[in-house]
Amino acid sequence: MFNYRLSRARRYVECTFGILSNKWRIFHRPINVKPEFAVAIVKACVVLHNFVRDRDGYQVEDTDFITGLEDAPRQTQSRGGLTPNNIRNILSDYFVSNIGAVPWQMSKI
Description:
Keywords: Metal-binding. Pfam families: DDE_Tnp_4. This is DDE Tnp4 domain-containing protein. It comes from Parnassius mnemosyne. This protein is mainly α. It has one domain (2-108). It contains three helices and no strands. The mean pLDDT is 78.
């Protein structure tokens, strides 16, 4: 289940970034700024992209959104004891929990 959900998320992120980079040339090269500013640049481009879509009359359906997802809390310190295996286990548990599961996921594996 974990590998399927991770693969699906990666495809969505890559597709979304492809759309952004086709529209905004800043993503065609490395962005040499602090990570916080890079996040602000990406957010600004997403807002501008959505504004242009709204202006051009694109209708967004509610099915484009997944409810129940929340931003992960920011780590103010290093990850400490969180190894890649710990992170994978946390995500795996989330994907099969009542909060993180999606109705169709079991039919896809």
